[in-house]
Amino acid sequence: MKLKDLLVNVCYTVINDGNPEISDVIYDSRKVSDNDVFVCLKGYTSDGHKYAETAIKQGAAALVISDSLNINVPKNVAVIKTDDTRLALALMSVEYFGRPAEELKTIAITGTKGKTTTTAMIAEIFEQADIKTGTIGTLGVVYGGNTYKTNNTTPESYEIQKSMRDMINAGCSAMVIEASSIGLKHNRLAGITFDVGVFTNFSDDHIGGVEHKDMAEYLYCKSLLFRQCKNCAANIDDPSWQAITKDAKNVLTFGFSDDAQLHAENDHLLSDNGFIGVHFEAKGLKELSLDVGTPGKFNVYNALSAIAAVSFFGVPDKAIIDGLKIAKVKGRVEPVRVSDKFTLLIDYAHNALSMENVLTTLRQYKPNRLITMFGAGGNRPKVRRYEMGETSGRLSDLSVITEDNSRFEDVNDIIEDIKVGINKTDGKYVVVPNRKDAIRYCINNAEEGDIIVLAGKGHEDYQEIKGVKYHMDERELIAEILEENKKL
Hints:
- The protein is built from 15 helices and 24 strands.
- By secondary structure, the protein is an alpha/beta fold.
- It has 3 domains: about 90 residues, MurE/MurF, N-terminal domain (Udp-n-acetylmuramoylalanyl-d-glutamate--2,6- Diaminopimelate Ligase, Chain: A, domain 1, 3-Layer(aba) Sandwich), CATH 3.40.1390.10; about 230 residues, Mur-like, catalytic domain (UDP-N-acetylmuramoyl-L-alanine:D-glutamate ligase, 3-Layer(aba) Sandwich); about 150 residues, Protein-Tyrosine Phosphatase, Chain A.
- The N and C termini lie far apart (about 65 Å).
- The model has no long low-confidence stretch (mean pLDDT about 95).
């Protein structure tokens, strides 16, 4: 593709004229090869302009810059100057990958909480409607049963465009993405017109450091999404909804409020035969009786977000009902079916606050016993271990203390630190240092009506010991244990 074809939507001035054939669009100088265009991005700790000379030596045919270069650029290397190279990267990536968003049903979700769960719910509803779907977010790029890890919730624009093209090539016809405030701030989603933008909620987060200077900037960055959406679904119960969606078109509101176009009624918790979730009735836009297979009343909001989003595509009601019942987020209170008599969940909670949130939610289901299996990471502050031990001891009927990324520490030393916290409570506990043995203990000693939480690993598929990451997926361990139990 010619350089000027990539720049068709970029505002720029020409420093070194030329229109070379471009092999790829690159923003990491280490990856530059012959005939690439190198886009100089300015980050928090590095500046791509410093690597322009390296890129030229490696064969770059063109440079895109926002600052002056203090090097002699060969005449055969085209140089384009623009105000914002991140925006340029996004717009060039759109063209390089052939405008993939135009070939997909696209939904972007922004909000402080609920993005990952809502993404999973929408994807499952689409799949139930025979709409093959890919997702981009906290868990990485997911499609076709495969997960490709990313560095950020909302990856760099080039990765987003490439992922959409890969999804199309794999047979997908829809894409759902988590639009983080940082991603919006840095133009990672620029150049995409989404079919639907979803606003979940807004609260204090990501303030300070290299993220947002204050709440006003945080809110503003969230609002940027709705300038590039054909339709909008917004949580009317959130006080910030109008400020964030002020630039939105065709707004559909949802919530518990009677003023919402799609609202929830008669919500209550569900726990039966190993199923744990929440029931509610949708009214207004949709008249549906729904069981959501994700625990906690707050997931009614996530379900409403998903229903509102897919309603713009005429998805059948049956797909919504079936999708919400089985949708799950890997590692987020993720149910693993083991028995009709008790419930087994995998969750990423790996500090006291996240444990508090999960265990408090599960307490509302009034289990026979709430059993929490957890460990704590090595080479991390000991206070975290004390706090996790105290939290589990206070909220669990039984704590099963085990390993979790011991790194360069002895797992038994970490366990002793956890016991310091748990001994501040009256909570019962057992120590099973090997994680697989600890899971086996939980399963084999479960009683009817128990809820068991395997906390700490979530979506992680490794155990880090002495500098080595060993493969370990708790879902696989559970399957192995169940097979081994059959042979006893």
